[in-house]
Write a structure and sequence with these properties.
Blueprint: H1 3-11, H2 32-39, H3 41-52, E1 55-57, E2 63-66, E3 69-72, E4 77-78, H4 80-93, E5 97-102, E6 111-114, H5 115-131, E7 140-143, H6 149-160, E8 164-166, H7 173-183, E9 187-191, E10 194-196, E11 199-201, H8 203-213, E12 219-223, E13 237-239, H9 240-243, E14 256-257, E15 261-267, E16 275-280, H10 282-296, E17 303-306, H11 313-325, E18 329-333, H12 344-352, E19 356-359, H13 361-370, H14 373-376, E20 385-389, H15 395-405, E21 412-415, E22 449-452, E23 464-469, E24 479-480, H16 484-491, E25 500-508, E26 514-519, E27 523-526, E28 529-532, H17 533-541, E29 546-556, E30 560-569, H18 577-590, E31 599-602, H19 616-624, H20 638-654
Parallel strand pairs: 5-18, 7-8, 7-9, 8-15, 9-12, 12-13, 17-18, 17-19, 19-20, 20-21, 30-31
Antiparallel strand pairs: 1-4, 2-3, 4-14, 5-6, 10-11, 15-16, 16-24, 22-23, 23-25, 25-26, 27-28, 29-30
Helix pairs in contact: 2-3, 3-10, 4-5, 4-11, 5-6, 7-8, 10-11, 13-15, 19-20
The structure holds 5'-O-[(S)-ethoxy(hydroxy)phosphoryl]adenosine (WTA).
């Protein structure tokens, strides 16, 4: 489709009501859920959790709120792995496929894993974990690729009541070590190597380095995936096939309180130390399951595919806990979306007759770039809904997704949420809500979102401001691991303890639809992943040549934003292209490939205020190619000229 017609669609302000044919068979066809939640919030959530979750002891209590802290379903007892697995098997649905596992190598056989098989594997793995000394409340780290054993390991932890901390398989040893140590993980589950773009990533070797930084880690359970030779440390490391396969096929699920920690998951923040959001069992499971059903209209016979990585919250909620608890059938794809060709996802959708597909705007833009001929060569007629998450979607990409992938028959749900929220907060109900490309539309039932000014007062329709959430929901994180002061300070100080400050800018239009405007703090969004500028800067100054560093984000057509870094060298080091390239790779190694900046620019000074603070606002203006704002508060206004010139050269070369 030509750009012109997209412009026309948008200038018309065209809206997209639920497509005919979808609305009639949608699970939710009216607004009664919103009405119920408004009338009786506690009753609404008790009703939802009783319908959706398998409790050993059903809760009588819903919300208990001592702002900013809250609990949900406090008197209930359950076990997440029991609710996700045993319950379905006991109801006679054991033969239903839980995961269609698609290995990255197209020639490797696929695996279909039923609920009964998944339960058995989880029980054996729980047996192995217990044998390795893991008990209720012990934290277990998981550093794996997208293999079925990853959800198995998570559910095995849940079965014991041991909180898991999954670290994305693309992170470096330093990032992994810091996350393991920060949460006191005792055991690490990993694998020899992981497949990515046809190459083998040495996860076990990286895990060995990380363990040096994390003395809390006493043992490792290692899955054999590629069969590579890896070093196994006697007494500490155990092969999965030795430790797991000989265990009993049953393992009693440990009943835990609703507020027991199910997992911790890291998010970036404005300081170098990553924050570990703590999620509970009862509230989180209820919220992930309810939002999965409502927003994606999950019904019997559907084949659901969330194409995220389990290492992010999207995978936790919509590959593991939401879909399994809802008894859904999912696709689990191991590898890269462009491997071996940009048609890979369309082949998988065609082969498995996928009905709902959920991905990120960055990937949609990559698919647009790769060319419409790839999806057009495949039968995508099984699809009946499309979703996006991770960053604002540009209307152009939205319309392409709707037309080229959805054939104009599938609602597109743009879902706004965060690691901290546990599940989707603002999104259409696909059988009810009229969509607008670029808007996540409305808060879900029970959610009260607002856009406010500096004083916390709601802004007028159409005006930008800060996105806040006014009351708790079951999926909200309860604290930051071992740092409740930071929980309160980061999220509940700015607008008071009853108001959750999301850190995103937004505006609401005349129809009450929310338009997200991106992060307002020093966090950038690269391919839908939050990276903090401080983390990049800290990594850079660890390099012997770097005296000082400042990171900002430049807009990027593909990834949304891309880091752009400025450094001052220590004396004795000379600027060179080679050094700049070395620093770029350095960040890739220190933090992970996703953080590798577009460029590291060596400058002779950084723009600082008289009090010595780096003026990031100016760096951002430079990176975004804007007119520079007020520079009069700078110590030396001349430095911005040099920086601007160098940045313009780099950005122009990469355009
Ligand atoms: C951004 C991912 C606009 C936002 C689930 C948020 C979005 C951060 C959207 C959370 C969306 C996520 N529209 N922006 N639909 N979804 N974001 O913790 O800035 O990895 O604060 O959770 O991503 O990222 P996180």
């Amino acid at each position: 489709m030509s750009d012109e017609s997209i412009d026309v669609l948008l200038s018309e302000g065209r809206t997209f009501p639920p497509p005919p044919g979808f609305r009639e068979r949608a699970l939710i066809g009216d607004t009664s859920l919103y009405d119920h939640a408004e009338r009786d919030l506690d009753g609404f959530w008790l009703d939802q959790t009783r319908r959706l979750v398998g409790w050993f002891q059903e809760p009588e209590t819903a919300l208990e709120w001592e702002p900013p802290h809250c609990t949900w379903f406090r008197d209930g007892r359950l076990n997440a792995s029991h609710s996700c697995l045993d319950r379905h098997v006991e109801a006679g649905r054991g033969d239903r496929i839980a995961y269609h596992f698609v290995p990255e190598d197209p020639d490797e056989p696929h695996r279909a894993i039923s609920y009964a098989e998944l339960l058995e594997q989880v029980c054996r793995t729980a047996g192995a974990l217990r044998e390795l000394g893991v008990g209720k409340g012990d934290v277990v780290g998981i550093y794996m690729g997208m293999v079925p054993e990853l959800p198995v390991a998570m559910l095995a932890c849940a079965r014991i009541g041991a909180p898991h901390v999954v670290v994305f398989g693309g992170f470096s040893s330093a990032s992994l070590g810091e996350r393991l140590e920060g949460t006191g993980a005792r055991l690490l589950v990993t694998q020899d190597e992981a497949w990515r773009k046809g190459a083998a990533i040495p996860l076990k070797a990286i895990a060995d380095e990380a363990a040096e930084l994390a003395p809390s880690v006493q043992g490792m359970l290692v899955l054999r995936r590629t069969g590579a030779d890896v070093t196994m440390r006697e007494g500490r490391d155990h092969w999965w096939h030795d430790a797991v396969e000989r265990q009993a096929a049953t393992f009693e699920a440990e009943p835990v309180e609703a507020e027991h920690t199910l997992f911790c998951l890291h998010t970036s923040g404005t300081t170098a130390k990553p924050k570990a959001a703590v999620h509970t069992t009862g509230g989180y499971l209820t919220y992930a399951s309810a939002t999965h059903r409502w927003v994606f209209d999950i019904q019997d016979g559907d084949v659901w595919w969330c194409a995220a990585d389990v290492g992010w919250v999207t995978g936790h909620s919509y590959i593991v806990y939401g879909p399994l608890n809802n008894g859904a059938t999912s696709v689990l794809y191991e590898g890269d979306p462009m491997h071996p060709s940009p048609a890979r996802h369309w082949q998988i959708i065609e082969r498995y007759q996928v009905t709902q597909y959920y991905t990120a705007p960055t990937l949609i833009r990559a698919f647009i770039k790769a060319g419409s001929e790839h999806p057009e060569a495949h039968d995508l007629s099984s699809l009946r809904l499309l979703g996006t998450v991770g960053e604002p979607i540009n209307p152009e990409a939205w319309v392409w997704y709707w037309k080229t992938i959805g054939g104009g028959r599938c609602p597109v749900v743009d879902t706004w949420w965060q690691t901290e929220t546990g599940g989707i907060m603002i999104a259409p109900l696909p059988g009810v809500t009229t969509a607008k490309p670029g808007s996540a539309t409305r808060p879900l039932p029970g959610i009260r979102a607002e856009v406010v000014d500096d004083q916390g007062n709601p802004v007028a329709a159409g005006r930008g401001g800060y996105l806040v959430l006014r009351r708790p929901w079951p999926g909200i994180f309860r604290t930051l691991y071992d740092d409740d002061a930071r929980y309160v300070g980061n999220y509940f100080e700015r607008f008071g303890p009853e108001t959750y400050f999301a850190g995103d800018g937004a505006r609401v239009d005349e129809d009450g639809c929310f338009w997200l405007l991106g992060r307002i703090d020093d966090v950038m969004n690269v391919s839908g992943h939050r990276l903090s500028t401080i983390e990049l800067e800290s990594a850079l100054v660890e390099h012997p040549a770097v005296a000082e560093a400042a990171a900002t984000a430049a807009p990027d057509a593909l990834t949304g934003q891309t880091p752009l870094c400025f450094v001052l060298l220590r004396s004795g080091y000379e600027p060179s292209d080679q050094l700049a390239a070395e620093l770029r790779d350095w960040i890739g190694e220190k933090i992970g490939k996703i953080a590798r900046p577009k460029a590291v620019i060596i400058v002779s000074d950084l723009p600082k205020t008289r009090s010595g603070k780096i003026m990031r606002r100016l760096l951002r203006d430079i990176a975004e190619g804007h007119e520079l704002g007020d520079t009069t508060t700078l110590r030396d206004p001349a430095v911005v000229e040099e920086i601007k010139q160098k940045a313009d050269e780099v950005l122009a070369a990469s355009r």
